[in-house]
Design a protein that fits this description.
The two termini are 16 Å apart. This protein has one domain (1-68). It has helices at 7-13, 34-43, and strands spanning 17-20, 27-31, 50-53. It is 25% helix and 19% strand. It has 2 helices and 3 strands. The chain is globular, with a radius of gyration of 13 Å. 15% of the residues are buried. It has a 3-stranded antiparallel beta sheet, covered by helices on one side. By secondary structure, the chain is of the alpha+beta class.
Length: 68
């Protein structure tokens, strides 16, 4: 699985909740709360988007993916 670049999401939506399409890149809606973001996405016809809170400050994550 290739890494996903969310740089454009971070720059535009830091400090906000975003709803993403299944491609994990396309932003459907954004808002200050999860509820607001969810309602906006639902109005656009998306019932189960991927939700993500974009941090105000960029942090790093180093980890290992394990298969079960």
């Amino acid at each position: 699985m290739a890494a996903i670049d969310w740089t454009h999401i971070y720059k535009k939506y830091k400090g906000l909740w975003v709803a993403l399409e299944n491609d994990e890149v396309t932003v459907i809606s954004a808002g200050k709360s999860l509820e607001e973001t969810s309602k906006k996405a639902e109005k656009k016809g998306f019932k189960e988007p991927i939700f993500y809170f974009v941090p105000k400050k960029m942090t790093y994550f180093v980890g290992k993916i394990t298969k079960k």
